[in-house]
Amino acid sequence: MELIYTEQDLPSIARTILEYVDTKILAFYAPMGAGKTTLIKALIKELGSTDNVSSPTFGLVNEYQLDNGELLAYHFDFYRLKDETEALDMGLDDYLQSNAWIFMEWPEKIPNLTPENMHSLKIEILDQKTRKLTLV
Ligand SMILES: Nc1ncnc2c1ncn2[C@@H]1O[C@H](COP(=O)(O)OP(=O)(O)OP(=O)(O)O)[C@@H](O)[C@H]1O
């Protein structure tokens, strides 16, 4: 699926993505500043959490909950990952088998990351305000 959007379209883009996907593991491939974190923020909100979403700065992963305390999602940013071993060491395989949503920024840092049940979202910058999303 391909979608072209600006920031004001994000709530409806998030809804469209959530209707399209049939698994909860989403990998975001995009250059710096394309809007990975911004899109994940819209998805978390659409999924019903009021948690603050920002790029994980410590320990590579953020955890989000629903307002009733239930675990909703894990948000990874692999940008600073040294190598794939570090991902295994942090227990990535266990996270992937959890029943939570999984949002991953910079998945290209883990070339062997190809779980069958993963959707890929590629974001391209068309101009300052406009992005093109390709979701498979
Ligand atoms: N259509 C759009 N969708 C998302 N962000 C947009 C859009 N148009 C402009 N922006 C701006 O682009 C920036 C995207 O920043 P964001 O941190 O989400 O990118 P990122 O891909 O997560 O970057 P990084 O890899 O550095 O973490 C924001 O400043 C946002 O306001």
TrEMBL record:
Tell me where it mainly resides: cytoplasm
Keywords carried by this UniProt record? ATP-binding, Cytoplasm, Magnesium, Metal-binding, Nucleotide-binding, tRNA processing
Checking Pfam families in the record gives: TsaE (PF02367)
Q: Does this UniProt record's set of keywords contain Cytoplasm?
A: yes
Carries keyword ATP-binding?
yes
Q: Which domain of life is it from?
A: Bacteria
Q: Where in the cell is it found?
A: Cytoplasm
What's this protein's family per the entry?
Answer: Belongs to the TsaE family.
Name under which the protein is recorded: tRNA threonylcarbamoyladenosine biosynthesis protein TsaE
Q: Which organism is it from?
A: Maribacter confluentis
